[in-house]
Amino acid sequence: MRFHILTLFPEAFAGAAEYSMMGRAVQRGLVSVNVVDIRQFTEDRHGTADDYQFGGGPGMVLKPEPTFAAVEKILASLPADDAANTPVVLTSPQGSRFNQRLVDEFAAAPALVIICGHYAGVDERIRTNLATHEVSIGDYVLTGGELPAMVMVDAVSRFIPDVVGSAENVQEDSITSGLLQHPLYTRPADFRGMEAPEILRSGNHAAIDQWRRRQSLERTFRLRPDLLPAAHLSNSDRAYLAQLGWPVDGNEPLAE
């Protein structure tokens, strides 16, 4: 996966792809992160990338010329088929909420271009005629799109084959699986009088699987009940949720 990040502040990404799993993925050539300084595509000697709003108003607006030029150069460097299937994402508090559906969509693309919004916003022509997606990571406003870009790169990279140890590790994560993850424990079994559940140390894998599934269902019911309608639930899952008080109506998708 090739990530191309357009920003006015490339120094914000120093070291961002050099540690932990991301660092190893870059070293192994599984992903690449190309940080592009938008000011390099400006047309004047001052590197002017923003300007006042037409009609007046507070805050500066990111100009269209350098942003269009940067994106077009990136896309022109890709094979034609890849360029046609590369999302161009604009970070914006007005965008669609970043979620697992978008992670899956972006991870399947040959490359990803991310435009980091800044100042009061970007020229509307960038949003309507250049970006293919407008994405927000939450209902709050940040000083710029650099942190959202990092979030997207990290989340998408995890679904590139071999970036994370095994595919099973990723698929069992909270949200990815459709439910919140069950509780996790490691040694020591007894820490300050707080004991790991005996069942996890029993060696009875069928019982452990059932306990984990029910813990996952219960945690989702208590903390994120909004996830349950789209989750893949078996008849036994629905029966257990009914015991917890979830109003099962029989329309939830069945697990395979």
TrEMBL record:
**InterPro entries (alphabetical):** Alpha/beta_knot_MTases, tRNA_m1G_MeTrfase_C_sf, tRNA_m1G_MeTrfase_TrmD, tRNA_m1G_MTases_N, tRNA_MeTrfase_TRMD/TRM10
UniProt EC number: 2.1.1.228
Tell me the SUPFAM superfamilies matching this sequence.
alpha/beta knot (SSF75217)
Question: Which GO MF terms are attached to this record?
Answer: tRNA (guanine(37)-N1)-methyltransferase activity
A GO cellular-component term linked to this record? cytosol
Q: Please list the coiled coil stretches.
A: none
Q: Is S-adenosyl-L-methionine set as a keyword in this record?
A: yes
Q: Name one GO biological process term.
A: tRNA N1-guanine methylation
Swiss-Prot/TrEMBL keywords: Cytoplasm, Methyltransferase, S-adenosyl-L-methionine, Transferase, tRNA processing
Q: Which residues does the UniProt record annotate as the domain tRNA methyltransferase TRMD/TRM10-type?
A: 1-228
- The enzyme's first-digit EC class, named in words, is transferase
Pfam families attached here? tRNA_m1G_MT (PF01746)
Cellular compartment(s): Cytoplasm
Q: For this protein, what reaction is catalysed? A: guanosine(37) in tRNA + S-adenosyl-L-methionine = N(1)-methylguanosine(37) in tRNA + S-adenosyl-L-homocysteine + H(+)
Tell me the subunit arrangement.
Answer: Homodimer.
Q: What does this protein do?
A: Specifically methylates guanosine-37 in various tRNAs.
User: Which family does the similarity line name?
Assistant: Belongs to the RNA methyltransferase TrmD family.
What the entry lists under PANTHER family is as follows: TRNA (GUANINE-N(1)-)-METHYLTRANSFERASE
- Name this polypeptide is given: tRNA (guanine-N(1)-)-methyltransferase
Q: Species name for this entry? A: Geodia barretti
